[in-house]
Amino acid sequence: MGVGIAAYFLFGRSMLKTQNAKTAVTPSMKTYTNAKHNYSIRYPTSWLVREYPDSKDGAAFNPLDKPGYPDKSDAISLSVGQKIGNYVDEDFIDYAKIAASVEIQNYGELASLKRITTSAGTVGYTTTWMVQAMAGTGSGSSESLPITYFEVPNDKTVLVRVTLGREEDLATYEKMLSTVKFNVLKNVTPTPTVDEEAVLENVIKKYIALKHNSNEDVLTVTVSKINGNYAQGGVTDGGGGGMWFAAKEDSVWKLVWDGNGVIECSVFTLYPDFPTSMITECWDETIQDTVQR
User: Fold this and answer.
1) Which of the residues 65, 97, 112, 262 could staple to 283 if both were Cys, CB 3.0 to 4.6 A apart?
2) d(C-alpha 47, C-alpha 53), whole Å
3) Around Cβ 177, how many Cβ atoms within 10 Å?
4) Intrachain domains 29-182 and 196-292 with the same fold
């Protein structure tokens, strides 16, 4: 074989390998669009997407061979929620620095923070956190998998959260993050915001007055925390007081429990997704003892 032919042969093979490598790392993608909050994200064609049927706020993404919920955790999940409680007015980056620690039980100090910019120019922050071991599962803490936050352009109190559930899917997670896009509608009159605290105070007051056959006028209801579709607060009647917890169903707030002491575990039959960050334990009527939720 001549030198020229050999060089051409080797160069040709090198080019072919390079082209094949490029093809291998550029899988075709589909687009998931969230109509409720007007954002989109792309995901691999070979993956399954499952939009959350009740809230319509987001979706879960999984490889075909590992479908995720209910048998195993989802590979990548996408959700939307409001900033929590007293932190609503925090700037985006400042909230990202404390977000998971106030939203998720056992999440403590911020371990890492990285600013990212998507191909559409959307800015987000990828975070990891030090997570304390649950009671009875060991001791110490470990670093979490990433959670990335994006601020909804038309409402600075609302964030999109993209969470990695399986470390093996980190490369796909990072590729999907780069495709997040908000489709901001122009020339649209903003929908008036609802003062959720005022709504809750009024609704809970009516529920408690009706439940205990008391006068609304003597009740003072306060809201201490709103976490998406769940809330908690206090109530007094001049002579004493107690706690209350509420959940929003079909855009309507409903009283879950009120009183003093530990909540019965049977309450969570109807509200299994009530945040453990709000109610960490309950009274198990079967064993007559307090248990962790």
Assistant:
1) 262
2) 18
3) 21
4) no
Per-residue pLDDT of the chain (293 residues; tens, 9 = 90+): 444 444 333 334 444 444 444 444 445 899 999 988 889 999 999 999 999 888 889 999 999 988 887 767 899 999 998 888 778 888 899 999 999 998 888 899 999 999 999 999 999 999 999 998 765 555 678 999 999 999 988 788 889 999 999 999 999 999 999 999 998 654 444 444 557 888 899 999 999 998 888 888 889 999 999 998 999 999 998 778 899 999 998 888 999 999 988 899 999 988 899 999 899 999 999 999 999 98
CATH architecture label of 29-182 = 3-Layer(aba) Sandwich (3.40)
What pTM, to 2 d.p., does this model score?
0.55
Distance in angstroms between the alpha carbons of the first and the last residue of the chain: 74
CATH fold of 196-292, please? Phosphorylase Kinase; domain 1 (3.30.200)
Q: What ranges do the domains of the chain cover?
A: 29-182, 196-292
